[in-house]
């Protein structure tokens, strides 16, 4: 019992850390004056390369076997991750960070629905209530956002949210699969798909190459690896809920780096999101305490 609780807490910590890493995407995107395909190519090269190096250093030849011997479940996860990444960067460039954030916040509902249909995993009432509160918080963040010409960006964000929800459930379903290897493969797939469409591959300056490397290493490699490892230890709906922490953090990094002060609605909505996640985690820990 104590071992299961420890694993559950570890899963929460890993997904929280992954959400923090994921939330830095708008910050890095804002720093780079290139088309989305160029950014995706270099980010995938650096992100996939770092994950592969870490696997080989930690696992040796077994790491290489995981990379080149993935089963169907691993390839499905890699495909979902690739589709999500390909949609994410253009969505950030075509519409506002707030619009993307509100759509990301639907992740708990999408993941819970897919897990119920696919795994017969009934979401806990507390998690669903917290998800509803989090969604209300992000709705406040977007406030009076208008779609208009942002329609394509919103559509891409919706597609990304569905792909990530499917990936979350698949990770939960196939715990025996090396999902870290799937993360590496998904980054390489993103780079391969981007080559025909990228217009600035050879025009990237030295300083921008460093930023792209940091983008790939921190936001992609670290974020995906932590999320995959943590999702294996948590119910799909809870993992998706905790990952919504990136919603209030995305405008926070923009404020910290570019002095763009968030509106009052953003602060209020962010407080609701973070409060909902924290309440779910505290309630979960209390429920799992062994009776004396």
Report what the structure shows.
The structure is a single chain. This protein is an all-alpha fold and 292 residues long. The chain has one domain. 80% of the residues lie in helices and 0% in strands. The protein contains 14 helices and no strands. Helix 3 crosses helix 4 (61-68). The two termini are 13 Å apart. The mean pLDDT is 79.
Outline of this structure?
With 292 residues, this protein is mainly α. It has helices at residues 2-22, 25-31, 36-59, 61-68, 72-94, 97-104, 107-119, 125-142, 151-173, 179-194, 206-231, 236-243, 246-258, 264-288. The chain is 80% helix and 0% strand.
Helix-strand blueprint:
Elements: H1 2-22, H2 25-31, H3 36-59, H4 61-68, H5 72-94, H6 97-104, H7 107-119, H8 125-142, H9 151-173, H10 179-194, H11 206-231, H12 236-243, H13 246-258, H14 264-288
Helix pairs in contact: 1-11, 3-4, 3-5, 3-10, 3-11, 5-9, 5-10, 6-8, 6-9, 6-13, 7-9, 7-12, 8-14, 10-11, 13-14
Number of strands: 0
Largest sheet: none
Overall tally of domains? 1
Q: In angstroms, what is the radius of gyration? A: 18 Å
Shape label: globular
Mean pLDDT: 79
Helix content: over 70%
Unreliable segments (pLDDT under 50, ≥5 consecutive)?
none
**Computed structural class:** mainly alpha
Salient structural properties:
single chain, 292 residues, mainly alpha, 14 helices, 0% strand, globular
